[in-house]
Amino acid sequence: MNEFQLIRRYFDRPAPGAVLGVGDDAAILAPTPGMELVVTSDMLVEGRHFFAGVDPESLGHKTLAVNLSDIAAMGARARWATLAIALPEAGEAWLAAFSRGFFALADRFGVDLVGGDTTRGPLTLSVTLIGEVPAGQAVRRDGAQAGDDIWVSGELGGAALAVAWRGGRAPDASFDAIRYAERRLDWPEPRLQLGERLRGLASAALDVSDGLCGDLAHLCERSGVAAELWLSALPCAEALLPLRVRAPALFAAGGDDYELCFTAPRAHRAAIEALSAELGLRLTRVGAAVSGEGVRLLDVPGGTPVFLTHASYDHFR
Amino acid sequence: MNEFQLIRRYFDRPAPGAVLGVGDDAAILAPTPGMELVVTSDMLVEGRHFFAGVDPESLGHKTLAVNLSDIAAMGARARWATLAIALPEAGEAWLAAFSRGFFALADRFGVDLVGGDTTRGPLTLSVTLIGEVPAGQAVRRDGAQAGDDIWVSGELGGAALAVAWRGGRAPDASFDAIRYAERRLDWPEPRLQLGERLRGLASAALDVSDGLCGDLAHLCERSGVAAELWLSALPCAEALLPLRVRAPALFAAGGDDYELCFTAPRAHRAAIEALSAELGLRLTRVGAAVSGEGVRLLDVPGGTPVFLTHASYDHFR
């Protein structure tokens, strides 16, 4: 199988949302009048973002999901993706499973794969995603105000527990907790529906990819505010509850959860709770934006500081 | 230096053509009304697309240039780029030189770097480029007609000679030839001005990245025509002329030249020659589209076939 057969067999699918998809020097896209584009690129490297030998179907899902999560954090709708992939060898079973995972998620959110590149090399995956959002309505990181609530979607800590488990350094945890954690790590769910509905409700948002405290610090810096977070409020699965006090960093600084963290005026509390019920998605108030700078983690509102060994994941630390 | 300091120091530049550049979950772009987007992604892997230890400034140039070349081949104007980069270590001198080469070329063509990703891993570079073209006017691969002329910009064979030279398997060549060849390999010049001017003149186009015969075969397949190429007509530098008969594959099947190959009706010959003079860029008629399928290389028009060991570069061969 050569490079072009490989592309044709596994990655050349109809792209109904594009003028021209895979197969030319570049794809041709017709942006929707009145919309702005949001564009994000992420790169996943074997041994760093995922373990060697991971299930290729889940890897296909995750490669797209981490980019969709950035689009969700902007309040945009995902439209088009490109995929550049370096592979040690053109293994048919691996490619079939990878592309199955990738396209299953793409189809769920109406995303067209419109281009990319395949080459031989250490397993590396790079996706660029383009979304659309009504002009001027993107949810950015720089809109938080002192006094805003801080919210988190879904549950935290699962993915970080799975990373620790596979690395042989997990705290004691139940079988149920590990099974749940592995699913969270391998099959993250991008919060696209939520993201679109946060337009007009959230003052700022980002996705939690490197760890809540560290990610939130970026939002605070760009908004010119500080944040107070409450460990006891951080949402987590029932099976992980015993770990929240014993291993707080999993929840407050663990990466790979791909939940949305957003700020919103207090006046929007009822609307956000109603949205949570409507979407069937947990939305939890976990802290408050205050004046100053930095992120402080307290055990409870008005309580005592919790110290972590690190605030988030840094690829060059 | 952590990941965010690295981005700030080397990759976070003003992006005057974007609503929002580096630093949020995604960039925000306002497409120009009446334009379509063209989008392309390429990935460069150390040891495959470039030699380990290559000058990082030329690598920064080339990483962007190979993507700009795809935009040129569509007849579009380049606007925005993202860069995802995996690095074995965050070496400051390397990063400074790489970003200097990247931004020098970006500035020449008014391209804004609007986002990306940095991570640790085997040296891998992935760029996505977004360009704009008036709706319906992109130059695609599928418009060639039997009877059209086939043209090539610039000169062929230099980059392939440099690859052979560095790999220790070059044919005998002069010092001048090698010096020229290395410059062609390391500092390819994307033909953006030419590309934009080919709208309305060319019936089809692509860039020569994997080798003329192989690349042209893709154009022929999508257009439903065959091609006849004349080895004696393939443009090459004076210093390389002695090699054209001894090592025809360098010219007819060598990769990495990043020239444009395009088809055009005979009625446009004078206009194309005038354009060549205006741009100060050699444009050479190298063959003809004919009915049938496949690409045939002849020594001269109406002459005898030339056989090559391969038609183009294939990453999985």
TrEMBL record, chains A, B:
<dbReference type="InterPro" id="IPR036676">
    <property type="entry name" value="PurM-like_C_sf"/>
</dbReference>
<feature type="binding site">
    <location>
        <position position="313"/>
    </location>
    <ligand>
        <name>substrate</name>
    </ligand>
</feature>
<feature type="binding site">
    <location>
        <position position="70"/>
    </location>
    <ligand>
        <name>Mg(2+) 3</name>
    </ligand>
</feature>
<keyword id="KW-0460">Magnesium</keyword>
<feature type="binding site">
    <location>
        <position position="42"/>
    </location>
    <ligand>
        <name>Mg(2+) 1</name>
    </ligand>
</feature>
<keyword id="KW-0067">ATP-binding</keyword>
<feature type="binding site">
    <location>
        <position position="117"/>
    </location>
    <ligand>
        <name>Mg(2+) 1</name>
    </ligand>
</feature>
<protein>
    <recommendedName>
        <fullName>Thiamine-monophosphate kinase</fullName>
        <ecNumber>2.7.4.16</ecNumber>
    </recommendedName>
</protein>
<feature type="binding site">
    <location>
        <position position="209"/>
    </location>
    <ligand>
        <name>ATP</name>
    </ligand>
</feature>
<dbReference type="Pfam" id="PF02769">
    <property type="entry name" value="AIRS_C"/>
</dbReference>
<feature type="binding site">
    <location>
        <position position="207"/>
    </location>
    <ligand>
        <name>Mg(2+) 3</name>
    </ligand>
</feature>
<feature type="binding site">
    <location>
        <position position="25"/>
    </location>
    <ligand>
        <name>Mg(2+) 3</name>
    </ligand>
</feature>
<keyword id="KW-0479">Metal-binding</keyword>
<feature type="binding site">
    <location>
        <position position="42"/>
    </location>
    <ligand>
        <name>Mg(2+) 2</name>
    </ligand>
</feature>
<dbReference type="InterPro" id="IPR016188">
    <property type="entry name" value="PurM-like_N"/>
</dbReference>
<dbReference type="InterPro" id="IPR010918">
    <property type="entry name" value="PurM-like_C_dom"/>
</dbReference>
<dbReference type="InterPro" id="IPR036921">
    <property type="entry name" value="PurM-like_N_sf"/>
</dbReference>
<feature type="domain" description="PurM-like N-terminal">
    <location>
        <begin position="23"/>
        <end position="133"/>
    </location>
</feature>
<keyword id="KW-0808">Transferase</keyword>
<feature type="binding site">
    <location>
        <position position="40"/>
    </location>
    <ligand>
        <name>Mg(2+) 4</name>
    </ligand>
</feature>
<keyword id="KW-0784">Thiamine biosynthesis</keyword>
<dbReference type="GO" id="GO:0009030">
    <property type="term" value="F:thiamine-phosphate kinase activity"/>
</dbReference>
<dbReference type="GO" id="GO:0005524">
    <property type="term" value="F:ATP binding"/>
</dbReference>
<feature type="binding site">
    <location>
        <position position="70"/>
    </location>
    <ligand>
        <name>Mg(2+) 2</name>
    </ligand>
</feature>
<dbReference type="Pfam" id="PF00586">
    <property type="entry name" value="AIRS"/>
</dbReference>
<dbReference type="GO" id="GO:0000287">
    <property type="term" value="F:magnesium ion binding"/>
</dbReference>
<feature type="binding site">
    <location>
        <position position="256"/>
    </location>
    <ligand>
        <name>substrate</name>
    </ligand>
</feature>
<feature type="binding site">
    <location>
        <begin position="116"/>
        <end position="117"/>
    </location>
    <ligand>
        <name>ATP</name>
    </ligand>
</feature>
<dbReference type="InterPro" id="IPR006283">
    <property type="entry name" value="ThiL-like"/>
</dbReference>
<keyword id="KW-0418">Kinase</keyword>
<feature type="domain" description="PurM-like C-terminal">
    <location>
        <begin position="145"/>
        <end position="297"/>
    </location>
</feature>
<feature type="binding site">
    <location>
        <position position="49"/>
    </location>
    <ligand>
        <name>substrate</name>
    </ligand>
</feature>
<feature type="binding site">
    <location>
        <position position="210"/>
    </location>
    <ligand>
        <name>Mg(2+) 5</name>
    </ligand>
</feature>
<feature type="binding site">
    <location>
        <position position="141"/>
    </location>
    <ligand>
        <name>ATP</name>
    </ligand>
</feature>
<comment type="function">
    <text>Catalyzes the ATP-dependent phosphorylation of thiamine-monophosphate (TMP) to form thiamine-pyrophosphate (TPP), the active form of vitamin B1.</text>
</comment>
<comment type="similarity">
    <text>Belongs to the thiamine-monophosphate kinase family.</text>
</comment>
<dbReference type="GO" id="GO:0009229">
    <property type="term" value="P:thiamine diphosphate biosynthetic process"/>
</dbReference>
<feature type="binding site">
    <location>
        <position position="25"/>
    </location>
    <ligand>
        <name>Mg(2+) 4</name>
    </ligand>
</feature>
<feature type="binding site">
    <location>
        <position position="41"/>
    </location>
    <ligand>
        <name>Mg(2+) 1</name>
    </ligand>
</feature>
<dbReference type="GO" id="GO:0009228">
    <property type="term" value="P:thiamine biosynthetic process"/>
</dbReference>
<keyword id="KW-0547">Nucleotide-binding</keyword>
<feature type="binding site">
    <location>
        <position position="70"/>
    </location>
    <ligand>
        <name>Mg(2+) 4</name>
    </ligand>
</feature>
